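Inputs:
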Amino acid sequence: MSDAKEKTRAEQLREELCRPQKHASELLSAEELAAADAFCEGYKAFLDQCKTERECVDYYVKKAEERGFRPFEDGKEYAPGDKLILNNRGKALILAVMGKRDLAEGVRLAAAHIDSPRLDLKPAPLYEEKQLGLLKTHYYGGIKKYQWAAIPLALHGVVIRRDGTRLSVAIGEAPEDPRFCVTDLLPHLAQEQMQRSLAKGIQGEELNIIVGSRPLMMDGKSEGVKLALLQLLNERYGLVEADLLSAELEAVPAFPACDIGLDRSLVGAYGQDDRVCAYPCAEAILDCGSPEYTAVVVLADKEEIGSCGNTGLETNYLQDFLTELALARGANPRTMLRHSKCLSADVNAGFDPTFPGVMDQHNASFLNRGVVLTKYTGSRGKSGSSDASAEFVHWFRRLLDDNGVLWQVGELGKVDEGGGGTVAADLARLNLDVVDLGVPVLSMHAPFELAAKTDIAMLRKACGAFFSA
Ligand code: MN
Ligand code: MN
């Protein structure tokens, strides 16, 4: 037997038995790559307009209304093809398209979150120290605090004035706008700071944002800068200090989304966790036509702090909505939920060659190798995970293969290296089948995160396939 023949046999076996992980460039034609890039132009524009959950909700309410979606009404019976919006307090959103099948056969639900880590202003934020005006913050979500110093910040949010009128704020986005900034210590005087652990390089109470430095008057008395800033806020926005106490103001990175790399293959931007999943999910339902099964997208708030509160998925708004839909059509809501299939769309940690040590390379996800199917998340022995069943993961892998979606598996780092969770566990509580599917991201939770354009386009394709399955 010759060597050549042996090799052929091995090659044959490899073809029959192995699953080679392909790079998107091997699979996609030049036209398909161009289409992926084009899809990400819309994505980048969305990122620049939507840096908070409220802005994401406003964006998709408007876009959905233009596409024929109408506000959902309790108790109303909807017919196949009807398109519904449920706006939960301006911070979470459900979009649905009624399917042809009986609701008791289940719905197709895709969930992604639209909140991202950031610096929230404290209830009494404004103070002055040595003729500098500053804002106190309390960070939101899991951040490495040192990353938020010495970068330009924008202020977003909502202030309700005493008379009940409402002010939407986004200062620091237009080119001519001022920006804001957390300061860091110069290296010359940072001997003590440099000995701190990375976790304490910048500490929570050091995340103070500079907002001004010109006092109203130089009368030797303190607080001239604070007074000048309050005067500015009053003249421009009709605010007084007490209005800040009830406000919801957030500092987010002020730079826009951009292409990364000479080949422009990646998107760099703030807030890609989880808008990189929210965008493909929402775009897919807008385009889903008249589906077989009722299609539902939920864009959730508060995932980054545990899905708590009345706009997080720990509460009942999604279940209540689905129950109302079922009851109005005479379907048993519990039967519907039990037969429903859910795609929990969230990012996973992409393999970073600079930090290979935290990954099991056999189970890591890689940029440009397609969407990541994550069977379980959690930490310390899968704790806190919903752990999808073999049956359901199989259903999904068939769906992805049959629709030409490039996919890979992924785990969030090595066993016992750390861990995390998604809304999958909250959704599993509804007694439906759910698995995580998303996009691998580098520098997750940093003010500037990276994702590959082909993976983002693949998630759009996966969501489209899911709603037509
Ligand atoms: Mn996420
Ligand atoms: Mn996150």
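Residues 30-49 form the longest helix (20 residues). Flag for discussion at group meeting.
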